[in-house]
Design a protein that fits this description.
Bound molecules: 2-(butylsulfanyl)adenosine
Largest sheet: 7 strands, antiparallel
Radius of gyration: 28 Å
Distance between the termini: 49 Å
Shape: globular
Strand content: 15-25%
């Protein structure tokens, strides 16, 4: 066996070496076919000897099983956010503050690009990638190990034998601008939802529930710092740690540069700004870090931000183009919103042909006409915006419609709403179509192949009239449709069948209740463990839930007060849509108790909350007569006062710790 194992390890080492040359250094030594040949040899040996497969084998990049929902885990050191500045004066002020806090000079700084991607935390134990997470709330991140393993630039095993026993490596996952545009072109052709930016597409790819989907997206990675690590590693400076990362085979950016003072930083910012347009990936600024790690420790943190680093943000990029027309779109909840159609133009590296116009007031304020020359701005992760009219021209003014462009029903406008609405609901074809598209989308039941065009086709053919009809589709009528053969009909039916197995928050989200998205759905799922609990929840009970505001409580009640909505939700379940039963509490010591958290606690709130919930308690947002306990941390304010007034049991941190031990 030993010679075989040696052989296997040699092949793996060779593959790691060549993958590093290709994906990390961008400097391959062998042709693709030579690499593939080597890879096939590895696969052949492993197939014949599956007991020899190790998690760090190059064959193990794709292979994780799909998951229902992403789990969360705690980072070993929190993932912080950065303070921002937008001018050299502000940067100088930050440096002066650092010097004053320290009562000495901070010493040299390091400037590096601020990548516009998604932050990840990679945990290496004994040099092997054992866990990868998103930033999450900074304390807890979502577990995405299988997805990150598919990124070729992320080593499954660190090179060199001086790696620490364990270390968190922090970096940014991104997609190049070209790859993002190519993805959108394909998605547009098949009628799927487009991503608004490279950042947005990297985030979507990374949070896929099925790693084989992530593997198809061209994700890459820059490692830019270290988090917590074992004591056997003692770097002196940030640049040292970056050099170590490079030595260990991680992909680090070529532009990290030592700058001795504020002037040198200003010069770096200017130089990188000039190159920005020629980089293949998006950056939105420069991160300036104090180099010496002991000095970093002396400076410490302020709330969730380090005092030893700051982000300089480049100003948003503008471009001008001609407005061709304004279309009015009817959304799934009836909102009629204007969308500007533009002469395609490149703004900040990305081609733009549509822009949002929030409502008619904005159109009137801007004074746009057909053919106006307008100034466009793309800032961060949002659909570009029209900032102003540069040349009005003499085209027709854009007037708001009086009737729904889809069904002709007279539009209404709420008292203090700027938005026009079509009141026809499910008798308006556009609202039905958008509701179905939403129902099938990634954040809801995620039915592959049910893009805009397919949904439109099924509605037009009368095969479906509402969401639940999707689960009654039969093969024969599908085959009759244009652009649909036996094979694609079957794969659509398979996708529909697979989508029945979902999670409760996704199910709630898919109902399309106004103003309720993924986050609120998760909150509702937590508090109302069964569909019937949710259907029958009254306004007061909903209001007591933490982070449920009045409009949301009202929308939920209004939604379920309509017979057709209740019937539709129940019909989905009858037709087979299901989700895992809620997790049983660890114990039921706190069963029936209703807690409110207030003030500052030494544990993060999410943790306090999960400790309580795991023991059977419920956590709500506001103190009422139903509240049984109030956990009052430091500087507790009005909630504590109210609890005292109502004579509710007040628990401090020490007592809380005893309770949950
Ligand atoms: S250092 C406390 N370096 O910026 C140190 N972050 O606002 C924070 N980011 O979510 C991390 N490029 O994803 C660092 N070269 C860089 C970065 C960078 C982008 C992101 C990071 C984080 C955010 C912080």
């Amino acid at each position: 066996m030993q010679p075989l194992i040696d052989d296997l390890e040699k092949i793996r080492e060779a593959l790691r070496y060549h993958a590093h040359r290709y994906y990390v250094l961008d400097d391959p030594e062998v042709s693709d076919s030579e690499y593939d040949e080597l890879f096939d040899r590895l696969l052949a040996i492993e197939r014949a000897n599956p007991e020899l497969i190790t998690p760090d084998s190059p064959s193990q990049r794709v292979g994780g099983a799909p998951v229902d929902a992403l789990q969360t885990v705690e980072h070993r050191a929190p993932m912080l956010s950065l303070g921002k500045c937008t001018s050299i004066d502000e940067l100088d002020a930050w440096l002066r503050r650092c010097n004053a806090d320290l009562d000495r000079d901070v010493g040299s700084l390091v400037c590096e690009p601020k990548f516009d991607g998604v932050a990840v935390n990679l945990l290496y134990e004994n040099g092997v990638l054992s866990q990868a997470t998103t930033r999450g709330d900074g304390t807890f991140g979502e577990l995405i190990t299988a997805n990150v393993k598919t990124i070729n630039a992320a080593p499954l095993k660190l090179m060199s034998n001086d790696v620490p026993a364990w270390i968190e490596i922090r970096g940014e996952v991104y997609i190049t601008i070209d790859d993002f545009e190519a993805y959108n072109r394909t998605a547009a052709a098949s009628g799927e939802k487009l991503f608004v930016s490279p950042r947005n597409s990297a985030a979507g790819s990374l949070r896929q529930k099925d790693p084989t989907m992530t593997a198809k997206r061209p994700l890459s990675l820059f490692c830019y710092s270290i988090g917590a690590h074992s004591d056997d590693y003692q770097p002196q400076s940030h640049l040292d740690s970056i050099n170590d990362l490079r030595r260990w085979g991680c992909r680090v950016n070529e532009f990290a540069e030592r700058c001795d003072d504020g002037n040198a930083c200003a010069d770096y910012i200017k130089r990188l700004g000039e190159r920005r347009d020629s980089l293949p990936y998006e950056i939105d600024g420069v991160v300036i870090k104090v180099d010496d790690l002991a000095t970093q420790r002396d400076l410490g943190f302020y709330i969730r931000q380090p005092r030893w680093a700051i982000a300089f943000k480049y100003p948003p990029v503008d471009a001008s183009t001609t407005l061709l027309d304004v279309d009015y779109q009817v959304g799934r909840t009836g909102a009629v919103t204007p969308v500007a159609r533009l002469e395609p133009v490149r703004v900040d590296r990305v081609t733009v042909s549509n822009a949002t116009l929030h409502n008619q007031d904005e159109i009137d304020r801007l004074g746009i006409r057909k053919g106006s020359k307008v100034l466009l701005r793309r800032a961060g992760d949002v659909i570009p915006k029209i900032v102003k009219v540069v040349e009005a021209g003499d085209g027709a003014l854009i007037a708001a419609p009086n009737v729904c462009p889809s069904c002709g029903t007279a539009l209404t406008r709420g008292e203090d709403e700027a938005i026009l609405r079509c009141p026809a609901q499910m008798s308006c074809p556009a609202q039905v179509q958008n509701a179905v598209i939403y129902f099938c989308s990634r954040e809801c039941l995620d039915i592959r192949g049910m893009g805009t065009q397919r949904v439109e086709q099924l509605l037009n053919a009368g095969l479906i009239k509402r969401n639940s009809d999707i689960f009654t589709l039969k093969k024969e009528p599908l085959i009759e449709l244009e652009r649909m053969g036996e094979k694609s009909a079957q794969s659509l039916l398979d996708a529909i069948e697979n989508s029945k197995e979902t999670t409760y928050p996704r199910f709630i989200n898919s109902l399309g209740i106004r103003n309720i998205g993924e986050d609120t759905s998760a909150i509702l799922a937590d508090r109302f463990p069964t569909l019937e609990d949710l259907i029958t929840a009254d306004y007061e009970t909903l209001l007591e839930v933490e982070n449920i505001a009045e409009t949301i409580a009202r929308n939920v009640v209004d939604f379920f007060s309509i017979d057709a909505n209740r019937e539709e939700a129940r019909r989905l379940v009858e037709l087979g849509v299901h989700w895992p039963a809620p997790k049983a509490p660890i114990d039921s010591r706190l069963d029936g108790q209703i807690w409110v958290l207030t003030g500052k606690t030494s544990r993060p709130r999410t943790e306090v909350k999960s400790l309580l919930v795991a023991r059977g308690a419920r956590v709500t947002g506001s103190v009422s007569k139903n509240t049984t306990h109030v956990f009052a941390g430091e500087n507790a304010g009005s909630k504590l006062e109210k609890a005292q007034e109502l004579g509710i049991r007040i628990v401090d941190e020490t007592e809380f710790n005893e309770l949950v031990e």
